[in-house]
Design brief:
Elements: E1 11-12, H1 14-22, H2 24-32, H3 45-66, H4 71-76, H5 81-94, E2 102-112, E3 115-127, E4 131-138, H6 146-151, H7 153-165, E5 180-186, E6 189-197, H8 200-219, H9 241-244, H10 253-262, H11 277-281
Parallel strand pairs: 1-3, 4-5
Antiparallel strand pairs: 2-3, 3-4, 5-6
Helix pairs in contact: 1-2, 1-7, 3-5, 7-8
Length: 282
Amino acid sequence: MPVTDLPADFQFSQTSLHDWQTCKRRFKYRYLDERAYPAPQTADQIEFEQHAQRGDTFHQLVHQHLVGIDENKLAAGITDAQVSGWWEQYLTHGLANIPQPRHAEVLLTAPIGDYRLLAKYDLIAVEPGKRAVIVDWKTSEFRPSRSTLERRMQTIVYRYLLVEAGAYYNDDQPIPLEQVEMVYWFANFPTQPEVLQYSAAQYHEDKTFLTNLVRDIAAESTFPLLPESDIDRVCRFCNYRSLCWENVTAGTLADMNALETESDTEDFDVEIDLDQIAEIEF
């Protein structure tokens, strides 16, 4: 029997699953205890929040454009030079080779074990019988490697869930696995999108992985502290660090970016994704 306080109607997302994989104690504070954040995420919190706000503004612009608002009207309201640059790159390159019809800000959910799995997509574009494309807009300063993106929780959850719950966008027919692909489009690297195809083998691997992961979370009772060796790469960027450690100071946004670059060559993926911060509240 489950021994956590996980509600029966709890819905898992890529963010909550990544939090669990990163730190079980963080998962407990955020999703079970529902604690308010006691500390800023970085030492230069204003810069951090400004970057996050630019990313949010860019995502809103793209969403508005995809639902039919005139691009010139949208451009007239942009006051930030960096966002303006991203916007121009999106108009030139962002929708290259993306099929029609396109569905922006799509929410999908499906059962996973005794719970549900949920994701909010920037864009799903399905040409029935041919291609089913997931597009995720990224405004990060660095472009992760293909191997890093392949192992990200976002990639695992988004492709799997489109197969499980995306039939509505494919004329109410199951989407063939080989037609699914995920495109990461980077505003700072507009001509270098990463396209990740799906396969039956990967789907079954993802299903087993996600089912086992949810089962393990539901059975957890101790929520152990991370070892001190993880303080530099995890705890310095955690809002809850003061609840676990004394005298651990926050890292900077530059430190965070450096860790993202390092994660391309290490066995872990930091996955500090400013574009996904809002999903925590969602």
